[in-house]
Design brief:
The termini are far apart. The chain is built from four helices and no strands. It is an all-alpha fold.
């Protein structure tokens, strides 16, 4: 039982992971006089450029989401243990659930922001490569 109490928060926090943008989610077309190999080379260069622009953002976002979830769960456990009612376990579980939800919401928001920054860098690079995507 004690192992489950310790393992559950760790499993729930694992769901707070934000991933690095793995590619553009926007559509681009070759420039007017651009050959297919030129377009592919531009895509390769711009994907690397965009990835460098958001580099490390996912790791920072994960650390912040996990810290927020752990803090909220700890506060719930503290409040539950100091209450005069026999609901310390319930208070701790509620704090854990609230912390996990906050961590997940933050991870989703951060993932959206990272992807948006990646797409912006990618499309601007592609425009510069072809002079007008």
């Amino acid at each position: 039982m004690k192992l489950a109490i310790v393992a559950l928060p760790l499993l729930l926090l694992a769901g707070c992971a934000t991933t690095q943008a793995i590619g553009p989610t926007v559509s681009v077309q070759p420039g007017r006089y651009q050959t297919w190999p030129q377009f592919q080379q531009a895509q390769y260069e711009c994907k690397n450029f965009a990835l460098n622009q958001v580099g490390g953002a996912a790791q920072v976002a994960n650390q912040q989401a996990q810290s927020q979830a752990i803090l909220s769960a700890g506060m719930g456990a503290l409040i539950g243990s100091t209450s005069h009612y026999n609901s310390a376990g319930r208070q701790a579980a509620q704090g854990l659930r609230s912390g996990t939800n906050q961590g997940l919401n933050r991870a989703r928001s951060d993932q959206y922001t990272i992807q948006r920054r990646y797409n912006t860098a990618y499309t601007e690079c592609m425009r510069a490569q072809s002079r007008g995507y």
